[in-house]
Write a sequence for this structure.
């Protein structure tokens, strides 16, 4: 008997609650909502006619829901679009057996991002915040005479993101340390995060070095994310040419970069298997294929692009190449932000080639819509036949009684 009670406790501990709750919810919802309507229709119109009307109403409602699901990609959905890895290339892209080898040929032209900025925004990289404000905000004539006329996108905002302003970085670090000292004195406690003069100067040097490394490792995709116009000017002046491929910004290729990141960390053939995303630094991302993109943000181009992509039912192969470089191991300091990754200049780059799998996100909704439409039309046709038969018999009965 004791063994039976122990067995009952084991059975009672099994987690059947989600399954039972879900089944009961669907069953009760069907009985209360659909069942009650079907019962009322049957009691008033009879079993056959009531069932036909109830089913017609149900499939009509499913038709409307299916259309909404189909348009917005919600409700009953399939697999979402993903980037599927196809190839890993170590070193030169020209060694690839696919069309990716065109990125490694002699026909491409690549100018470093820092040289492009120096060409179109002279003095912007080395300018301090005060000089940037005088040049680009206040339009100081004396300073402008010393430089070429800057492009419209050479703004103070762009300069602050890529310029190495040692004075501002040092002042910001000192202010943060002074704030820690003030809070510790006010609270009467000792804060291990407070730096002495030697440690503070070392920290300032690290911050400035990280900012300089960010500038040195500025990629073309990163520059495109800051401002796409400067990349367009560089391509117009033949400073950049990618042999039929398109340069993607880091923001525009976020999903592809995330997919490549996950693949490099999970695939056993990858040198970063079971590592972390800090083991490599994402360089440039290139794309080719897919449906045509609009040439501008104008209203006409937007409308024409939507019409063209809607008419074109096939989906050309969409390929993307994400290139990364291994980084040097750096020890993180407790209580401080992790150091900016430094590219290992002696290691070869690694490129992940991926193709776009469009998935089947709207396929279940499309099948539901089409199936519900056929059922709804069929049931309405059956109801129409019953209505015409009823009218014919009513007319025969009226004519026979009149005679």
């Amino acid at each position: 008997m004791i063994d039976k009670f122990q067995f009952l406790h084991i059975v009672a501990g099994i987690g059947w609650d989600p399954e039972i709750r879900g089944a009961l919810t669907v069953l009760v919802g069907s009985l209360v909502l659909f069942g009650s309507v079907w019962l009322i229709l049957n009691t008033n119109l009879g079993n056959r006619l009531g069932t036909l009307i109830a089913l017609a109403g149900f499939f009509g409602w499913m038709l409307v829901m299916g259309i909404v699901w189909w348009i917005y990609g919600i409700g009953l959905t399939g697999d979402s679009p993903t980037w599927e890895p196809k190839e890993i290339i170590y070193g030169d892209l020209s060694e690839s057996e696919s069309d990716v080898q065109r990125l490694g040929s002699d026909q491409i032209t690549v100018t470093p991002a820092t040289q492009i900025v120096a060409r179109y925004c002279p003095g912007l990289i080395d300018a301090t915040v005060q000089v940037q404000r005088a040049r680009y905000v206040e339009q100081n004539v004396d300073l402008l005479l010393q430089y070429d006329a800057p492009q419209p996108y050479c703004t103070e905002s762009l300069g602050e993101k890529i310029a190495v302003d040692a004075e501002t970085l040092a002042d910001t670090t000192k202010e943060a340390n002074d704030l820690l000292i003030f809070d510790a004195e006010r609270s009467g406690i000792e804060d291990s995060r407070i730096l002495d003069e030697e440690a503070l100067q070392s920290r300032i040097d690290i911050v400035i070095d990280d900012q300089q490394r960010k500038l040195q490792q500025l990629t073309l995709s990163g520059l495109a994310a800051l401002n796409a116009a400067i990349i367009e000017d560089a391509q117009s002046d033949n400073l950049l040419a990618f042999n039929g491929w398109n340069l993607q910004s880091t923001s525009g290729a976020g999903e592809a970069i995330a997919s490549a990141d996950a693949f490099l960390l999970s695939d056993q053939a990858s040198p970063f298997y079971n590592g972390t995303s800090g083991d490599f630094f994402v360089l440039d991302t290139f794309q080719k294929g897919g449906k045509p993109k609009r040439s501008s943000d104008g209203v006409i181009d937007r409308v024409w692009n939507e019409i063209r992509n809607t008419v074109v039912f096939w989906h050309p192969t969409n390929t993307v190449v994400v290139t990364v470089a291994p980084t040097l191991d750096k020890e993180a300091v407790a209580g401080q932000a992790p150091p900016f990754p430094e590219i290992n200049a002696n290691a070869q780059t690694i490129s992940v080639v991926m193709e776009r799998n469009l998935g089947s996100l709207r396929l279940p909704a499309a099948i539901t819509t089409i199936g519900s439409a056929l059922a709804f039309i069929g049931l309405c046709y059956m109801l129409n036949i019953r209505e015409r038969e009823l009218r014919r018999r009513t007319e025969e009965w009226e004519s026979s009684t009149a005679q």
Q: What stands out?
A: Confidence is low (pLDDT under 50) at residues 143-147. The chain has three domains: 2-78+363-402, 81-102+242-358, 109-241. The longest strand covers residues 280-289. The beta strands are 82-90, 246-248, 280-289, 318-326, 350-357.
